[in-house]
Amino acid sequence: MILANNSDLKKYVSIADSFQFADFEPYIQKAVNAYIHKYVGNIHVILADEPTGDNAEIKNEAREHLRSAIANFGMYIFLPLLQVQMDSSGISVNVSENRKSPEWWQTKDIRRELLRAGHESMDLLLAVLDANPTVFTDYTENYKQSNNELLVNNATTFSKYYNIFDSRQTFIALMPVIRKVEDQYLHTFLCPELIQVLKGNVESQLKAVKIALQKAIVAFTVAKVSNTGLFIFDERGLRVDFENMSDGRRENPSSSKSVDQLKSLAEEETNNGTQYLKLVAEIIEANPSDFNQCDFPLLKNSKSLPGYEPYNTKGVFGL
Q1: What is the pLDDT of residue 146?
Q2: Which residue in 184, 241, 262, 304 has a CA-CA distance of 20 to 30 Å to 230?
Q3: What is the pTM assigned to this prediction?
Q4: Boundary of a domain, candidates 103, 123, 143
């Protein structure tokens, strides 16, 4: 079992010797269902026992991060019920002369730290899995491959152009928006053959175009999510508002920035993305021999700058 007793649990969260592990045990699966499975599937089954043999060191590193994530997420879910007693007569709070229940804000602070630690461990786990695709083949085939169809396909690339703290979970949360951005701006701008080439390893002017497009995609993505309430924006960068998401609430916007600041951010990033696309057009126009993947790499009906318009499509973006 991935967590079997108090000794296992104590490695990741603080509990007393008198803690009843049997009471916590159902919350292991709850933690997997709520926070683990959507990212990595049933890896808790694969890593239930301490690995030995080939790649044991790598697998044990992943197992430690997984156990930490499950312990913290499980305790996050369990903590409110830990303070009450339920029997056939109803629900009661345990109070004695020597002990009393914590204040609501103390419980909230503890849960916030458990949630933070759980997500931190998940990001560390995902980093190990991403770095070892041949060791964790089930994860690579079923959860990682879908990223490869995107031009911005990992957290590290996204973080180069807007800081998401290299968080895999934040990147996964952004993926639906990235897909929408690529459909809206990329596939109405360049021919499919060129786009496919750019998704591989490229050099010279092709690389320059790829980098500019990645910068544009990141900028348009940031602009789109700036006022959704699902992400926190501050002077450091962007991250998922896990606390509000877990509590089932939405605060729009969820950010240390004001509404006006977020509006300005969206406008600035949209303008940045537009400028990057103009740069792409200029590079392609200046280097036609490098962009011969199709007859018309720029989907436009005029060669003049500015004024690129999508060719034979209802795309909404034009330069």
Answers
A1: 66
A2: 184
A3: 0.81
A4: 143
